[in-house]
Design the sequence.
């Protein structure tokens, strides 16, 4: 997966577009933009502008590909931590650890899955709203902008299977988030057990509580395409 970066003028920006938390057949997953050479967008304003232009739920800028120093943006704000961007970046960079602003994130591979270790307190606040059935979650309309809602219901409680949908409520063009690792961390911490979450159209997120408040977050990743932006 690793490739040697080509020498490019600083004004040219290469962006790998990944799908993170794909289903078993490779479909679905949340789109993620990864700028492998963060020097092409060196300041916060230019990074925020690019994240808004791309319109993905998150875009990652890699500041040091060997150390795994990364910077994460939604179309509207910079984030210290986010689940699917870190799973995707760790897979793409093929590292054992990545460093977002929130702290050190350890990584492991397990066959088709990439796992990261994180803490629920790193996740931004979310409203976890439980429903009585998966059908109720499926029938939900996108709410008006406001609070960030993670709607969920048990599909099979004994097996830890969850049906979920995520509504960021930010008014930035992302009405529904296809696969949300941070919210999965919060739900895992609340329920205190491993979960197998089907979110959005069919994305799959796996979680597993560990010692000392650490939670593993895992899923499949695939490279969809590479974009090149020029002035």
Sequence:
């Amino acid at each position: 997966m690793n490739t040697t970066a080509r020498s490019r003028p600083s004004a040219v920006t290469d962006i790998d577009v990944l799908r993170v938390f794909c289903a078993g057949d490779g479909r679905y997953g949340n789109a993620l933009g990864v700028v492998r050479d963060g020097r092409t967008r060196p300041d916060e304003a230019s990074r925020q502008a690019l994240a808004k232009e791309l319109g993905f739920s998150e875009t990652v800028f890699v500041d040091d590909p060997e150390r795994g120093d990364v910077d994460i943006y939604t179309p509207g704000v910079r984030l210290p931590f986010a689940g699917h961007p870190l799973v995707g970046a760790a897979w793409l960079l093929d590292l054992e650890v990545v460093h977002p602003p929130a702290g050190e994130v350890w990584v492991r591979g397990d066959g088709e899955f990439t796992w990261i270790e994180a803490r629920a307190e790193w996740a931004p606040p979310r409203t976890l709203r439980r429903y009585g059935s998966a059908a109720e979650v499926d029938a939900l309309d996108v709410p008006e902008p406001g609070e960030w809602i993670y709607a969920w219901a048990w599909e099979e409680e004994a097996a830890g299977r969850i049906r979920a949908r995520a509504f960021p409520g930010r008014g930035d063009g992302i009405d529904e988030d296809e696969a949300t690792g941070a919210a999965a961390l919060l739900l895992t911490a609340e329920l205190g057990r491993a979960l197998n979450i089907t979110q959005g159209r069919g994305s799959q997120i796996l979680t597993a509580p560990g010692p000392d408040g650490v939670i593993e977050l895992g899923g499949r990743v695939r490279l969809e395409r590479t974009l090149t932006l020029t002035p």
